[in-house]
Amino acid sequence: MITIAVPPEPTDEPRGTDFPDHDTYLLAWYTWRAIRRDGEFNHEELAAYYDTKEARVRQLFNQPTA
Q: What is the pLDDT of residue 24?
């Protein structure tokens, strides 16, 4: 049997190594998924959005995480 390795097709999907932390990556991925689907956030995507925004504000003002 002969197997030919074919590189995967390029994608615009966010990759974890492109972001400084996991929360930022998740926000980018959920946003990417929403845009590809219908352009609107579902409940899971909204939760990731608000969690990431809250963490960033806490970081900016040196507040402990909840």
A: 84
14 pLDDT above the threshold of 80: yes
Residue 18 to residue 11: CA distance in whole angstroms: 14
- Beta-carbon count within 10 A of 19 CB: 15
pLDDT digits (tens, 9 = 90+) for 17-50: 888 888 888 888 888 989 999 988 899 889 888 8
- Tell me the two tokens of residue 10: 């390029």
Q: In degrees, to the nearest 5, what angle opens at C-alpha 64 toward C-alphas 23 and 52?
A: 20
Cα 10 from Cα 5, distance rounded (Å):
15
The pair of three-digit structure tokens given for residue 33, joined into one six-digit string: 């998924």
How far apart are the C-alpha atoms of 61 and 15, rounded to whole Å? 28
